[in-house]
Amino acid sequence: MSILTKTKIITKKEELQALTTNLKKEHKVIGFVPTMGYLHEGHRALLKEARANNEIVILSIFVNPLQFGPTEDLDSYPRDFDRDLLVACEEQVDYLFYPTVEEMYPDTPSVTVKVHTRTNVLCGSSRPGHFDGVATVLTKLFHLVQPNHAYFGQKDAQQVAVVHGLIEDFHFPIKLIAVNTVREEDGLAKSSRNVRLSQEERKEAGILYQSLAAAREELIKGNNQLDDLIAHLKDKVEKESSGIVDYLEILTYPALEKINQPSGKVIVAIAVQFKKARLIDNIIFDLSM
Ligand code: PAF
Q1: Is 43 annotated in the active site?
Q2: Rounded CA separation 74/84 (Å)
Q3: CATH assignment of 192-286?
Q4: pTM (2 decimals)?
Q5: Per-residue pLDDT reduced to its tens digit, 180-196
Q6: Which CATH architecture has domain 3-179?
Q7: Site to substitute for ligand 1 among 32, 40, 68, 134, most atoms within 8 A of C-beta
Q8: Whose alpha carbon is nearest atom 6 of ligand 1?
């Protein structure tokens, strides 16, 4: 029988900051996994990585209203705190920060963070303000948690790129660790939003990864007709599923710039809107290898 760690829940920011200030005085190495909850295998991978490489592991669960647009799924975003707590205990998390919206934003914020680069492509172009909300909440969380290492899933590659910029520009003494995407057997990236797919949509959703893999194969073969390739793959996704392609882009990584002649590190990224879930995925590979 495995012995579950008793994860301590903290809901108040003052309590968290006092705790981490003491931990820093003791020179403890802190690993931080920020999430919006409804934890799945992808989050477990981040927690395992954090557990393996830090003395203290802190998980946060906070569905951040600032990163949702007015027509987005804030109210229906899936939540299951009891299950999340069990996952936290199983993954030997030491502290779980679980604040209310009022705790994090007692008033309309007087200062927010504006992200100026890497936001006019991929999710940024269809979710104006999204990464400003992410950068704002992470700035607050980084000050409270004071981690040595912060863990993010590579599935959200644009978020990883933006957080790199945040950490560098604001001089946070934090090392960002990007952890590989965890996939289902058919390649579908694990995500909290997958539960919103109907049975039929779930069967179709493997097409996201298949189209990314097909793009990678073509690029490695030397295909440089990117517009044609993108159009062909979009068409295939929409023919073979009920989803609508929001974007399918091939860009440099991590700068996320348009490509004329594919070379070096490249990201192929896709977002598909199903009835109740918008799924994203990407693969990153190096054409110079
Ligand atoms: O990736 C997420 O779940 C969120 O964007 C994050 C990083 C927890 C910020 O709210």
Answers
A1: yes
A2: 18
A3: 3.30.1300.10
A4: 0.89
A5: 999 999 999 988 889 99
A6: 3-Layer(aba) Sandwich (3.40)
A7: 134
A8: 35
